[in-house]
Amino acid sequence: MPTGYSANDLVLLLPEIVLTTGLLVVLVADLFTGRSRQHWLGWLTIGVLVATAVPIVALSGHATTAARGLLAVDGFGAFFKLLFVLAAAITVLISRQYLEVEQARPGEYYFLVLCATLGMMVMAAGIDLITLFIGLETMAVSFYVLTGFLRPNRRSNEAAIKYFVLGAFSLGILLYGMSLVYGLSGTTRLREVAVALATQSDSLALKLAVVLVAAGMAFKIAAVPFHMWAPDVYEGAPTPITAFLSVGSKAASFAMLLRLLLEGLPAMAPEWRGLFYVLAVLSMTVGNIAAITQGNVKRMLAYSSIAHAGYILIGIVTATPRGVTAMLVYLMIYAFMQMGAFGVLALLRRRDVVGDELKDLSGLFFRRPLAAFAMLVFMLSLGGIPPTAGFMGKFWLFSAAIEAGYVWLAVIGVLNSAISLYYYVRVVVFMWMREELESASVHPSPGVAVALTVAVAATIIIGVYPAPLFELAEASAKTLGMAPRVLSLR
Amino acid sequence: MTPITPAHYLVLSAALFSIGLIGVLVRRNLIVIFMSIELMLNAVNINLVAFSQQWQHVVGQVFALFVVAVAAAEAAIGLGIILAFYRNKETVNVDEITLMRW
Amino acid sequence: MTIAFYTLAAFILALGVLVVSTKNTVHAVLFLVANFLCVAMLYVLLQAEFLAVIQVLVYAGGIVVLYLFVVMLVNLKRGPETHVDPRRRDRMGLLIGGAVLAEFVAILLYGFAPRATGAAPAAAAPGVGNVEQVGWSLYVDYLVPFEVASILLLVAMIGAIVLAKKEP
Fold first, then answer.
1. Which of A217, A483, B39, C79 makes the best surface tag, with the fewest CB within 10 Å?
2. ipTM, 2 decimals?
3. Is A172's CB within 8 Å of B78's CB?
4. Does residue C25 lie within any of the structural domains?
5. pLDDT tens-digit series, residues A110-126
């Protein structure tokens, strides 16, 4: 009996296949690597990620589906997959030194990072409810374990519990919404769902389904009022994992949200536009105001990441090709600056210093001028100061909002950026204060140095010359199935 | 008595979902909270199977199978996290998770 | 059929309430098993025999045993509910749950009652039995998520070992 699969499917699924093979190799290699040579596992992991990036780039020009229409092979997916591979590579680079200080075994750690990456890739490529939710769960379960990876550390335990309870709870809500979507349309393939639901946009049950799906996904992107897990989890998790969580998990959830809304539920655009308008305004405002009061830098960055989720949601509210383009641009820029900031924090971790309080940064400029300069760049970029990439990202988001007629949303965004400057600049001020000078200096390993150099360079170069990234994002956003159709619905 | 329609199953699943929801919000014992989440996932499965019968195909049942697999994975991880936490602090009460502000 | 549904529904809901409200965790786990078994019988009513078997095997046989193990391992010297955070608002939880229930029921009845069984039968699957149909759908249509789920279960296995093993 014909099954509908061909050798072509194997080619189209090559990124996922390479990554899956690679993560199994890392898992087995861990068994045969002695304790003294375990740093090789990090480089092996980097090798796997590079090998995964090759087929992603090679396939980025396609616009087709694979595996019986469950996965899309298009520029949109390729853009996000590259982002995840990049974020995972930076995570691995900044992890080695941190893991040595924490005396944690790296084998399972790298394996789980790769599994989370696989889940994210499925989330970005899936155009089917079941596929999307299995990808989401693969990512989430990997992160539950990674968050609690430092077993003797009570903060890590507590963070894992909170993340797990709220993550599983939100999964229940999301699945209930998905089950209603399936029940109303009779299919799980998003493009068929869109056709089946086009005529019943006034159904109350469908509205309930949209609300539940939106609430479930809002948990994953940590939008207010579904954000309460984020500060505790970000503070308690190992710092490199916090970085990966705040960049990779957030970007993957945004990719999945875009697939769900624009490919599956374009008929409900008026409803979800309104919902995400409210979530965007709340996230920006609450995130920024709460960030001001934090004395712990990881916690402050958690609230700031909630605020950034609010900015990015503007792209979903507009739901125009330009808005989606701006989201992609911003997520890529955000990946560099956020991972970089956490990379500097991971560098500060030593045997007796946790290194995530604001005072741990004091005088950093005099101890390690280069690290302080990197942090300066990341803070200015997160705050959206002109010569950096963060400014370009915000500029595109807000101008997309104005173009789509959401002037007030742009105004609220600009006001919030102004508020956020206060706490970003405060970090800079602390780095230049000369007090509590500690002689114990932090020596960055080659991996950390490479990661920070890449992040700083990208943040500055994109800020000065954003055209290539913008063109890439624009071409990628165009391939997202239904974006033009939503535009015509307005 | 009226014949049983999918709507009957939906109401049953909504009720079971709400019981699970209340359990998550009200109870303090982590193990009971996990069990409440299992109840919520079961409510989802009842929905899926009822829709599957309504549409006369098995897609909903396959969806439910995946939900069962995920529930199993989550149970293993969740209970592992509880054990790790319990080793450091002999409690499973969420109100005692106070190192960071909740 | 009708009587069977109402009996099972009553059992499922009553056992669900007991799981959530019992003070003794071991009893709660046992109520959970009974609840899962009733749901399995409901699946038989809905002609999902394979899923019913899986429900018994995985939930009643696997997951609940895991729960029982942990309840026994985490042998609490004091009741887990003795310490109460004064800021808790239990009534709020009940209120939210009740509101959610009322809303769901209203919307679902309104949304589904008019078109109760209006669906046209989809293209017939190659097999006749329920197991065969599920097999075709799972291993042909949904092969990719099935493979990803295998990685998910591997992650769960490794993760549970990482989290639960004693310090060396």
1. C79
2. 0.92
3. no
4. yes
5. 999 999 999 999 999 99
